[in-house]
Structures are given as structure tokens and as C-alpha cells.
Amino acid sequence: MVNLGLISGNKGTKSVGLSFRIPYNTQWGQSLVVCGSESVLGSWNVKRGLALSPQHQGDELIWRGRTAVPAGLECEYSYYVVDDERNVLRWEAGKKRKLVLPDGLRDGEVVELHDLWQTSSDGLPCTSAFRNVIFRKTWSTEIQRPLGVIQTKLDENVPSEFCCDVVEIARVDEVKLLTSQLSADICDWQFYKIGAVEGNFCPETGPNRELVELSEPQPRSIILSDGMMREMPWRGAGVAVPMFSIRSEADLGVGEFLDLKILVDWAVESGFHLVQLLPINDTSVHGMWWDSYPYSSLSVFALHPLYLRVQALSERIPEEIKEEIQRAKELLDGKDVDYEATMATKLSIAKKIFVLEKDTILNSDSFNNFFSENEGWLKPYAAFCFLRDFFETSDHSQWGRFTCYSIDKLEKLVSKDSVQYDVICFHYYIQFHLHLQLAEAAEYARKKGVVLKGDLPIGVDRNSVDTWVDPNIFRMNTSTGAPPDYFDKNGQNWGFPTYNWEEMSKDNYAWWRARLTQMGKYFTAYRIDHILGFFRIWELPEHAMTGLVGKFRPSIPLSQEELEREGIWDFNRLSRPYIRHGFLQEKFGAYWTVIASNFMNEYEQQRYEFKEDCNTEKKIASKLKSCSESFFFLDNEDKIRRNLFDLLQASRNIVLIRDPEDASKFYPRFNLEDTSSFKDLDDHSKNVLKRLYYDYYFHRQESLWHQNALKTLPALLNSSDMLACGEDLGLIPSCVHPVMQELGLIGLRIQRMPSEPGLDFGIPSQYSYMTVCAPSCHDCSTLRAWWEEDEERRCQFYKTMVGSDSLPPSQCVPEIAYFILRQHVEAPSMWAIFPLQDLLAVKEEYTTRPAAEETINDPTNPKHYWRFRVHVTLESLMKDKELKSTIKDLIRGSGRSYPPTSGEIEVQAGREKGVATAAPTKQQVTAGLEKISLLNGSPKTEAVAVL
After folding, report:
1. Is residue 176 scored above 80 in pLDDT?
2. What is the tens place of the pLDDT at every residue in 381-396?
3. What is the mean pLDDT of the chain?
4. Are 283 and 461 spatial neighbours (Cβ–Cβ below 8 Å)?
5. What secondary structure letter does DSSP report for 659?
6. 336 vs 340: CA distance, rounded Å
7. Looking at 593-687, which runs of residues are DSSP E strands?
8. I need a labelling partner for 636 at 20 to 30 A (CA). Which of 422, 436, 766, 861 fits?
9. Strand partners, 452
């Protein structure tokens, strides 16, 4: 490329004009800058880029700019939205633009660039999911130039280059251009592809492109970059299953990374382009079954030893260890995962193999390469695991001089001269083999055309490697959760510390960027858990038990001055616990005064709050144990404890939450109208607080949260080329979906949790393209269980969605499951992703297990045991030709893409060239509904709005 900085002073160099033109509507205080790889465009320093000027043209805002450049310039460039101080607010997605000036330009001539803003959705084909997997063997981007000559209104020929990116699903011989002159100053055109198979003709979809205006003076040449070729949107299907839930003939009590290879084979033969997992990071915090919770990471970088295949650790495993493995396989092959026994068994066997081969492995080139690439997180992780086991707790505040992390202390812990070096190396060894096994499975999926989709948890455990190493990026005195919603009327308290986003921003969110880089080694797509957390998080005090008494962070609180202007003055009454003496009398009868004197302070007449030494459940239990003899005349200790815990919850019975860091700021308690404290207020106070409550939760924060998300999310999205999807369920602020659309983030749609107001059930046929649709997910009951849980809801669904007034079957029979799956595969959504349990429901032999046992998580239970295992092995599913054929026919009939198996490649190529399989006809759909209705003896053939 030409280095303009070296030749800018050379008077002999020909100089030509470069004119930029791009339509883009900005907000007040925003402007556009073009910045590129050469110094004349800022050398990628946006503050030195070329500023563009706005000009209104009808309803559009056109940005223009011109600069002088040497003839023969080659460079890359992009457009950026900046504020008045040239701070970047957003930038184009997708690839950097490439510019090669035409040959034969004379000094002073002008080349005009007509560009369109590249949206994030335009850049989706460039993500690794499409580029490296789905279109792995057929990906191509072509720039055709020159493809035509425009006759301008000045009756002069202006050479024009028409640029268009083409994603080739089947081999394309060439891209052609059709143009027509609409009037003296308007030209339109359309691209189309000529295929290699029988010369198939594939024109673009949608309206023709138009060139309607040239600048004055007229340019010497025009380059029109019109983004991607407009084709029918690509749609695919996937299967979702937790790693621990997979069952195979080779596993040791739990799904293992190498099992993914069989799952990928089954996915391909069933027509799926994607396999989705839950988080797979190490969660070994407590050393017990609580660690089964996959969203509470011990380390956001380390993989979970649970998923290790010990048989693959060595090719020279002694016979006695092989026999031990076989015995363990038989013992652990249960209906559910036995988390503790499986972990203990795998680590015990792995240690024996490690002793035999550690010198060979630790001195190998492959291990040394792995270590050098990962030592930044691997050393702290291994040291943490050693200290956790040595002190018998992951609570690093109990580690004495090791409580505070430092590089010097770390290096001493992992030193080759230390007595614990073998223990440290064992953790290195486990992570090395986990990496090898997952990388092998991931590469297998890529070659088979299957996207491996991971999961990015919103939080980390407060006793984790990350909080030990980087405590400054966490707010350790807080807890993360969710306000009351579909999942839990009391809200959720996940127990994670919230993030110190201000501190994270100082190094451009390096911790997040490192996480995504690590995930990108194995996955080509990922789900952002609770994406709302990047707009705002529901922050709770550390002592909170439920999700009720929280506030959004960041948010604009109610100020004391604001409340006083509204006639609200008694802040103690509204923000302190509302326990009256009547509550105590009701709980403890005649002895209520004994309880009050030991556990309560009377802060106002007949109003109480817990003393400092017993204001949490742990403190109450401890105090009861230490002075139980004082209460010998009362009921038993368990009953006292339960009643005190009930009062503790009542102590949260407040209307306003006072900010612990600023006593003059307040936050309205979620569902404040349900509290007895609110109900006892006067009518004026009630009306004021209801209005302020509604404003706080639904209007006041929108701009703040919009800005916050545009600071945090781009740092994630630009740190990897994985396809990103956001879990946008729950209480959704109105700013969320516009931001997701702008950033090219794919949302989630669950039919039973419609995001549209006024609907009992989502209508898949009306979902937008940038969504993943699914009948259920890991945080709710399966399709079968949901159908059986509620008769009234079942009847409503049958009437509304199936179109039948008759009674539905009480069980989710295969015909019902098939109908609901078909609704989803026929949806416009980019992806239809199905939990494996819902797919198995289309065949009766896989529905013998009680449906409730197939639920993966119960969000209302913070100590839920994540242990579900599929009751059929992957090998058995591979042999079930009927099931695979049923599912594949379902996908094929919907028009969705599916990975071709051997013998289908030519057929697939023809289909992508325009010989598409027809979607089911209305008569076919009606026939399917008739089959369902006949289950209860009442034929019903009315069509429903699912197409």
C-alpha cells in the first residue's frame, strides 16, 4: 500500500480528489468521520480522520467530505459516529472497506464514493459461524468492477464501479449486473448470480438499487458500494442440550467433550446446523453438589474437569486403572448426574495417570505451547485450586496472607522449587487435556458444518479466581439478581457480585475481551446470558435473600429534594423496616417482649428493626445457638428461628430503598404497592409514589441504559468474530431492542413468554428475522411438562394456536409436539433451536419418563441441583433412522438450510440455486391439525395463523 506520510511533500506525485458520500441519520451533537489505514485518513486514529458535513436531501441526511490523495491510492477505511470531542460513539460493523483507485486518473480529477452504512446484520456472514462453518467450503466475497457505465444528465459517460459482496452457498460462476435508465438523472440496477449448475439464474430480491444524484462538479469516476447481495435470508435450525446432560456409551457418569463428536454426527443427519451448550467453565467452588450450577464460575477461563474423558488421557493406561474406570462407569451410569461422586472419581483416576506420564506431557512441545498461550490465567487458577484445597474453602478472605493477590505471591506458589509444584502441575495437566479434547470436538463440528454455540454467564462466583485476582472490577458488597418476573414472583438473587463498570472501562474492558477471546478458541457462536445486565443490572445488598429489595445499576435515583417537592417528608417511615409490635405479638404471643429485647431495636414508638448482630439469617442462627438456654420457656429453637426468619423478610417491607452510598438518594421498592408499609400511607403519598415508581421503572432510565449498553456491548462484540445472541427475556426496557438491532445482536423468543403486550402466546410466524425461536429453554419446563402443568392454559393454547374448541389431550402426545415444532421451524427467525427433550417428544418411546424430571433448572430454587441426563445414549439416537428422518423432513419442509450428508451435496447445491423445496401447503397444515383433533374424537380442520 502507498505510504502517504512519506510522499505527501513530493510535488511530482499526481494528486486526485477523493469524495465520500453516505446517507446516515444522526442525533443532535453527533457527526460522521471517515478514518482509514493511510495518514490522509488518520491512520486509524479517529481524532485525525476526515470529518464529513451533513446535508438534508428529502428525508435523508447525507454526509459528504472531500480530500486530496495520490493517484494509485490503496487503503482500507470505515465510517464512525463521534461526539463534539471526536469520541467514538459507534462504528460500522463487518469488514473494513477496501479502496483501490481506478487506473488512468489525471491530476485533479475526482473519484466519488457512494457508500451505505454497514449495519451489524450486514456483517453476520463475516462471523466465524458462517464464514468458518456453514459456508466453510463455499465462502467468497467478490467485487465486480467495472460492471457498467451510467449515462448522466450531462450526457457524458462516467465510468462506474458497482461493488457487491456475495456469499456463495453453492458455487457461483459469476455475478452479472442489469442496469436501466429511468430518466435523465436516475439509473437503477440489480445484481444477479449465474450458477455453475445448469446456468441457474438467481436475481436479487427486493426493489432495484438506485443512483439518483451526482455531485458538482461532476466526478471522473464513481464507485458504488451497496453491501451484500440481496438474497432470501438464510435460516437454520439447532439443538440445545447441557454438556452434563449428554449420555453416551463411553462417558463416565456425565457428558464429556468428546461426546460432542457423536452429537454433531446426529445433528448433521437430523438436519441441524448448530449445537448449543450451557456454560462449561469450572464451577468447583464448594466441593459439593452446589457446584452443579453452571453459571457460578470458579474461573471464566478454566474448563470444567467434570467433562474430561479420563480414558483419553493416555494411550498407555495400565490394566488395573482400566478396570477401575470400567467399574466406575457401571456405578455412575444412573438416571441423573451424581456430581460429587463423578468429580471425585474422575480426579482420582486422572491423578493416577498423571503420576505415570507427567514428565512426558509437561516436557512436550504441545503442552509448552498451551502453557505459554494461557499462563496469564492458568497460573492464578492452579494456585487458587491449591489454596482452596489447602484451606478447605474458596473464600479467599480466609486465606491469611494469601487473601490479597499479588504477582510475587503467585510466582512463589507456582515455583518449580515449591513443595506443592506437583499439585500445581496437576491442574495445568487437567486443563491441557480438557483443551485438547474440546478443541478436537470443536474442529470436528466445523468440518461437519455445525456451529458450536457456547454460553457467556453474566456473573462469577464471589469466591472465584477472578474476584481474587481482580477485586477492583467487582462490587463485592453487592449481589446480582433479577426483579420479579415470569420465572419467580419474588425475583431472583444469583449471589454474584455486580461489576464495577467504571473501573473496567479504564482498560477498555480487557477482562471481558479476554473472556471472549478464550471462548472463540472453541465456539463460533455464543449466547450472552441476561443481556439486560449490560444495559443495567438488578443490584441487591449482599445480605438480601430474594430479589425483591434491589435497585437498577446504573439508574437515576429519586432525590430527597425531588420527593420533598412532591410533599414526601417522612423518609425514615418509608425507608426503614416496618415491623410493628402487632407483628411480634402475632408471632410470639405473650413472650414477644423477650424476643424484642434480644433481637430488636425500637427506633420509633411501636416500630422495630433487627439489631446489628442479628440482621441476617446467619446471624440469627448463630445468636440463637449461643443463647438458646435463655429461651427454654419458649417453643423449640426451630420454630423460633422460622418465625424470626419470617420477620426478617418483613423487615424488607419498605417503600423506598435508601442509597447506602448517598443518604439523600432513594429507589422505589419493586412492587411497592404490595407492601403493608405502602398500604398504610395516606392517599396523597400513595398517588405520588405510584407515579414516581412508574417513571423510575419505565421511563426515567431509558437514555442512560441506552448509552451504557453502547459503551459495554461493543467491547464484547469486537473482541471476537463469533456470532452473538442475547438472552433478552424478562422485564425488557424499550431501549433494549433498538440497541440489539443496531449492534446486530440476535434476540430470543420463547412462545410461552411473549414479548408482545396483550398476547398469551407468541406467534412464531410473526417473529422478526433477527431472533432465535424456541418452544422452551433450560430455565423453564420442557414442552411436555409445560403442557401437563396447567389444564386451563393448555386449553387456551389448543384453542388459540391449534384452532380447536375441543378438549386437548392431557398429555403432550407426539402429534402435539410435532405441531409446535413445526410452528417454530416455519418461523421467519434466523434460528430455530430446540432443547433435545422437546425433539425427543415427537416419538412416543422417548416419552416414558415423567415429564417433570426432564426440567434442567428451577429458577425459583437458588440451590437447585443441575443433574438432568438424557435417558437415551447418543449411539442409540444415531441408530434411530425414523427419528432422524422425521426431524429432517420437518426442517427440509420449512425451507431452512441444513448441512448436507454424503450424497446430498449436489441436491443441496441445486436447492440453493433456486430449486427450493416447497414449503408445506395450507392443505398440508390443515391435515396435520385434523390429525391432532382426531386424538379426542372431534375432527377439526380450521386453519390457524401459523404460516
Report:
1. no
2. 999 999 999 999 999 9
3. 84
4. yes
5. E
6. 12
7. 600-604, 607-610, 656-659, 662-668
8. 861
9. 275
CA pair distance 470, 405, nearest whole angstrom:
8
Print burial letters for 925-944: b (CB count within 10 Å at least 16), e (below 16): bbebbeebbeeeeeebeeeb
Compute the distance between CA of residue 620 and CA of residue 631 in angstroms, rounded to an integer. 14
Cell 441487591 found at: 540
- Specify the pLDDT at position 48: 93
Q: Is the pLDDT of residue 227 over 70?
A: no
Maximum pairwise Cα distance, the chain: 107
Residues 6 or more apart whose CB falls under 8 angstroms from that of 546 comprise: 490, 491, 492, 493, 649, 652
Report phi then psi at 499, rounded to 5.
-95, 145
- The kind and range of the H/E element at 687 are helix 683-698
pLDDT tens for 61-111 read: 999 999 999 988 889 999 999 988 888 888 887 778 888 888 878 888 888
Contact predicate 524/132, CB 8 Å:
yes
Distance CA 150, CA 221 (A): 10
Q: Are 303 and 281 in contact (CB under 8 A)?
A: yes
DSSP 384-399: HHHHHHHHT-S-GGGS
Percent of residues in the chain assigned helix, strand, coil, to nearest 5: 40, 20, 40
- How far is residue 466's CA from residue 381's CA, in Å, rounded to a whole number? 9
Quote the pLDDT of residue 902: 61
Q: Provide the residue type at 806 as one letter.
A: S
Distance CA(481)–CA(462), nearest Å, equals 13
Cell for 368? 509448552
Range of 128-137, 141-150, 493-502, 936-945 with top mean pLDDT: 493-502
Q: Is 840 helix (H, G, I), strand (E, B) or coil?
A: helix
Give the strand order in the sheet containing 478-482: 492-493, 478-482, 537-541, 551-553
Q: Using alpha carbons only, give the angle 571, 577, 580 rounded to the nearest 5 degrees.
A: 110
Closest CA to 690 of 655, 659, 657: 655
Indicate the residue type of 242. P
Do 125 and 723 contact (CB within 8 A), yes or no? Answer: no
Beta bridge partners of 565: none
**The predicted structure's pLDDT at residue 8:** 40
Q: Is the dihedral of CA 251, 256, 262, 266 positive or negative?
A: positive
Cα–Cα distance between 38 and 33 in angstroms, integer? 14
Please report which helix (H) or strand (E) contains residue 923, including its range: helix 922-933
Between 165 and 731, whose confidence is greater? 731
Question: What number is the average pLDDT over the span 48-71?
Answer: 91
- How far CA 59 is from CA of 22, 52, 56, 276, 561, in Å, comes to 14, 18, 7, 43, 43
CB 706 within 8 A of CB 735: yes
Q: State the Cα–Cα distance between residues 435 and 415, nearest whole angstrom.
A: 23
* Range of lowest pLDDT (216-220, 359-363, 750-754): 216-220
Sorted by sequence, the CB contacts under 8 Å of residue 414 that are 6+ apart come out as 379, 382, 383, 421, 424
Q: Which residues contact 11 (CB under 8 A, 6 or more apart)?
A: none
Element (H or E) spanning 625, and its range?
Answer: helix 617-626
Q: How far is the C-alpha of 89 from the C-alpha of 43, rounded, in Å? A: 19
Q: Which residues contact 116 (CB under 8 A, 6 or more apart)?
A: 22, 23, 225, 226, 227
